[in-house]
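Can you give me the bound-state structure? Components:
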Amino acid sequence: MTDLHPETASPVAQGAAPLLRWEGLSVPLPTGADRPYAVQGLTLDLQQNEVLCLVGESGSGKSVTALATMGLLKGEMSHTSGAIRFGGKDLTSLAPEARRHLTGARLSMVFQEPIASLNPFYTAGAQVSETISTHSTRPAPEIRDKVLALFEEVRLPNPEQIYRAYPHELSGGQCQRVMIASALALDPAVLIADEPTTALDVTTQAQILSLMLTLRDNHRTGILFITHDFGVVSEIADRVAVMRYGELVEIGPREQILTDPQHDYTKTLLAAVPKLAPRASRPVSGDPVLRVESLSKTYRSGGVLRRSRREVQAVLDASLQIRPGETLGVVGESGSGKTTLSQCIIRMVEPTEGKVEIAGQDFLALKGKHLRAARRRVQIIFQDPYTSLDARQKIGDAIAEGPVIHGASTRDATRISHDLLEAVGLDPVAADRYPHEFSGGQRQRICIARALALQPDLLIADESVSALDVSVQAQILKLLSEIQAERGFGMLFVTHDLRVASQICDRICVMQQGRIVESGAPDQLFANAQEAYTRALLAAVPGATRVFG
Amino acid sequence: MITRRTLHKYLMGTTALALTAGGPGKLLAQERPALRIAVDNLWRTMSPMNGLSTTGNRININFYETFTEVDWFNDDTGASVVPKLATSWERDGNIWRFTMREGVMFHNGVEMTAEDAAFTLSEERYRSEEAYEPRGAIYTSNFVRVEAVDRYVLEIETDAPDPNMPQKLSGPQAKIVPKDYYLEVGVDEFGQNPIGTGPYKVTLFRPGEVMTMDAFEDYWGAPAPAASLEWRIVPEYAGRIAGVVAGDYDFAVNIPFDQQEQVRRFDDVVLVNTTAPNYVMFAFNTRPDPEDNPLVDVRLRHAMIQGVDMDTIVQALFGDETFHPAIPFNFPDYGDYYDPDMVDPHPYDPEAARALVEQTDYDGQELIWHITRGFYDNYETAAEIMIAQWAEIGINVRMVVVDNFSLAYQRPFHLLNMSNGTAFIPGDPYQPLWLDWNPNSTRASADWKVWDPTDRFVELGAEFVRAVEFEERRAAYLALSKEWQDVTPGMYMWKRLFSFAHRAGINWTPSSGEMRMYGDYLRIT
Amino acid sequence: MMSRINPITAVAATFLVIVAVLAILGPYAAPHDPYQQNLLSRLTGPAWTEEGSAEFLLGTDRLGRDLLSRLIVGLQMSVGVALLGTTIGAVVGTAVGFVSGHFEGWVDDALMMIVDIQLSLPFILIALTLLAFFGNSLALFILLMGMFGWETYARLTRGLVLSAKRQAYSAAIVSLGATSARLYGRHILPNIASALIVQLTLTVPAIILLETALSFLGLGVQPPNTSLGQILGEGRDYLGSAWWIAVFPGFLIFAITLSVGVVGDALRDRFDPTLKTRRT
Amino acid sequence: MEFWLARTVRMAFTLFVVVTLTFVVLRTSYDPVVAMLGPDATNREIELFRERWNLDKSLIEQYLTYIGNALRGDFGNSFRDGRPVFEVIAERFPYTLWLGGVSYLFAVLIGIPAGILAALYRGSIFDRAIMVVSVVGFALPNFFLGILMILLFALIWQVLPSSGASSWEHVIMPAFALGLTLAGILARFTRSAMLEVLSKTYMLAAQAKGVRPARRALFHALPNAALSVVTIMGLILGNLVAGTVVVETVFAWPGIGRLLVSAISSKDLAVVQALVFVIAAAMVLINLAVDLSYRMLDPRTRRST
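Here's the bound-state model for the whole set.
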């Protein structure tokens, strides 16, 4: 699925009265925050039958804008100034009860985490019905029919069954469809979607995006679509508004922003967007630093007393090799087994079967002190930079800890730590600070430094850039490449993002349901995928064919 | 303000009116009130000897009756007894012949006869191997034969002439039980569902909670003044006194002395204090067990006696409500035996005490005083003061407060808390002087024994037991008492004080620790 | 948010500091010898009352001992027993939790079964039975207080260790080649310490109250030692006649429990990551 | 099914260990005879008592007999009055059930709504006030509170009966003394459970749907908070039992708390053993019931269709 509607940019009659208008909206931050306003002087309008994408990195104030519009801000932040005009009224000065009548009926919202936004206590059907019964007095059977029709419309399979299902029984994509059904139940004029696809797999994301466009057309809804992903923007936006530090930086039609951005910040952002630009594999030589043969991991649930054991094949018969200086990508959707595979390799999870050789040594046979000694050869960097550092350890000590464990003197370890801080682009003076004093990107650099302190033969990066803003993501990827070039370790790069994988990997393995279904150099793989699954993944990449900036 | 009490009175008034209108015939029974008494505890069994205890005796005199009864109403020293179920008696050498009252019914409708009276004191019940209530053996140790010779006459033969039998038969061992029923149900069951001849019959007994009694309609004597009695455990003092003040209860027992002044301020509450023939004391462990026991030295014991200002302590703790018997066994309970002018051989004298300590080898070693928690009112308080005073004369005592007597009895200890009843023979010093200190007594024979009676004490004791005539007996008593004091295996601290509170409108005379709710003792206006 | 201290918290914390100082000084802070009896001035009221005397600020007890001084040594005992008991329970429980969380599997099952057994009995029942049947001594008493709450620490620690073990930082440290001892001692313990400290603020007042309840039943700290619970328990009969004997220790127990609770709440707010704003 | 089987086996094992431990602790601690018979008991009396209660047999023999009888549901007779212990306990149990029930109801009816309101109006004066009262409930030793109430309501104002259990008026003070602590714990716990739920995205989503505040609180937040509140409701039953020991003594309430205290002080081994068993069994069953209701309440553990 490439461009969903290439030429019909905005069917909006320009100049008509806007559907929703923000006039100098400011939202204060609680005292003690790093800046006084979450959103400052935002002036913007949303037209009928339009998708307005609000783009920005974390902390830019886009979500706060959405919450302010819906009247969902709490505490000090609810004391907004400016106006939000809708249907001739200023929403911010409406009485709570009057505003509530609009909320959910005329203005509705879809959230980032679909599973978390459904109440685990009630069935999907009940929750959508509630939206209707809250704002109307229709009889119950009629509401039920309406809900089933909505489920049909958002293309949920088996509406009757979904109606009775509890959120925990649904997938993320299904939950998001239920949320969208709920949001559209009363045919609202405005739909606010706050990163509605970020938590979903790419294929699901593509389906949801296409669904939203259909809905826009069918209901003539004005959609404020919040995202950080320019790929998504390129798929869905009619107009794009870019925010930074709570202020509007630039606004314009999609094509203009994507191809001819005016503001430097927009340019930087666009430049950092990962592209599906598959590269050829670099020539590598030497003995493999990692050899995995027929690795399987089966999870068994249930105890002695259970009659019916459940077995889940997380990884099945996976084999791969990495040579020094080479980067092997493992891609796949959530649940495909890519993370379990990487955890089996470093023995955070004990594999059920198979063989793992690291730098020529049978890693699975090691025990106790030998295992601990061998661990220096393989290091890992995780996805969430917030949890992968011990919050109560100074970062200098964190980096020095590996060498210390393996017998380095404190002095040497400190020196290594300082050198590495410099190598990852941080001031060695920062060694005495604690993790919470750093941003996400900086923390990820620290994690890299910590991993490199042991001079491993193999580095595993498990979704290591997925949680970062695009500009930071680009920097980290660049850093990894550079350091790899310098030090020559092999790298296993686990990611769900094919764009990222395409840029950094020498070879890519595609995993589906625990198996490696296909592998090859990125340029070959992407140009000539053998598996339907691989092709589907590629097709779903937002903005796949697009060149930004 | 309408309180519950005034409301209660109002409601009672209308009820009474309604009843009067209903029919005068029933009035008599209805006029007798139901009394509720808040007690601190109830003993686990009510069988007369197995359940021998302050909390048992306090209430079971309302359903058991004895051969004779101490007449507390007319003589508050407790030295005189009057006929009860026995109407007359005579002694012929070693044989006593008692004639029992006719027409006395047990609560189960069976007439009380000499057979029952004889069984009560029988070998089978008290002295045989398989005795039902073996504690009775001590109380009847000189009995040779007990036999009903007629429906209403029984004979008691003793091993030597015993001039005090009628007095002795006012004691707990002489509470007459129905032979047939007793044998039928056994002593344990009997203790739970007791039957006697008294003015009240037991209707419900739950040890640890409550006992209720109804007036016994077929009682031989004056009808019981209350229609029913309910004895309910209220463990907290605050609950008991609030209960009486608020009208939930008619009586409450155990009013701590320190609280009495406050209780006196309530208009509707009457406070009654009385002493009982029982002396709170401690025993010295005079035996070399533990081996290094410094108290084997009598000088140290005398020093300790002389080192505490017991009069002041008792005054502080109980005011004038009770007293410290400075000279053991010279108790005012003993009528003619009592000599108010006797000179104390070991008076309070810290200087002398210190000098005595100097003479001994005592090196300041810690002496352990085992005390059973809360058993005697104010005991721990007195102990704290005494320990402070002993510290002044250089004797180091530590109190170890334990939960019960079996822990208190566990060696090693140097001092042990106890009390001594004095009324086994009303008006005669036999019990505290000989019964409880003789070589067969628990104090001289149990695992926890505190002394080995001297040969002289045993010899003098035998003489005292044989003495029948007053002068002879008095001389023997004085000699025995002197020997005891030369050894000093303990100290008598004060005469036990019992206190009660009851609502106004009741005229009640206490009889030592007992609560007699009949006859002259209880008048309800 | 971190820098602002609620005035109530400040008052509570100040009060606790005073209590701590008094408890440490103990008899040295007492204006009179706490054991000195004076039968002539029994039951003297607090200095400001009619029956009071300037000599005894808070009055005297039934033996004429200075109540203020008694309260100070009682405080020392109560706080000491509570802290010691808490420490024993926390150390044992935390150790059990670590063992359980480390080994998982049957070791965990067995240890948690023991925890279940203790949980199936209200602690006062255990305390009453043991004290009454084994006799009471200060050593047994403290040991018993140490038995109190260990199971809470065991369960808490176990849960925290299990979740910390699954945190990315633990995985990273294990993959550095660290020993378990290093992981637990240097990383997990400091990280879960805050939750344990919050739990401490719940255990300390609980033990003070438990000691009070046991004193009421006559099984608390025994004379000549004294504790707040014991003074209160003794004073309860005097509420109508010499109220100060019960009211002051009652108030002190109340104020300590309250303050520890307030400070504990503040600590919880400070430590609880869910209350921290990490929103964009 | 397997879950319940495992639970039952575990429960039975827990109770077995409790019974055994109690037996060992009580029978090895010391001889109950002197405590039972009083300070003046003679040797012969003590001997007879031992024979009567099999205390003269070896410990193993006593244990086997005890367990054998216990398995048949016979926990022996009270040393104190010779009646079957279960009869003694059964007599007292309704009183504790009554007092405990009223206190519990009081705690639930006051504590939970207070906690909910405090959470909904977090940071308000109202919230502070509720929290202060709840801490007071926890911090005030309940016997002190009880005696204070007796002095005020029975002695001085005379509006409530001082002690005993003969009418509904009698239950007011003990239930309050007992329930206040529980209400305090419940209020605090409900508050934090509610606060946690209120911060969930689905609460924001419900608000975005325009659902009324009251409905949000009652239909969206409460059922989810109830899951953790149910757990604590089981746990505080332990506090309840502990509280009855003291409160029943203060108010002369003839329940099992009083029975326990008096059985312990009179060393009635049979009753203490049976009471420990009964209380442990009740606690274990209650926890089972809590698990059960938790599973019934939580849709994640049940299946739709």
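A couple of observations. Residues 1-13 of chain A have pLDDT under 50 and may be disordered. The first strand of chain A starts at residue 20 and ends at 28.
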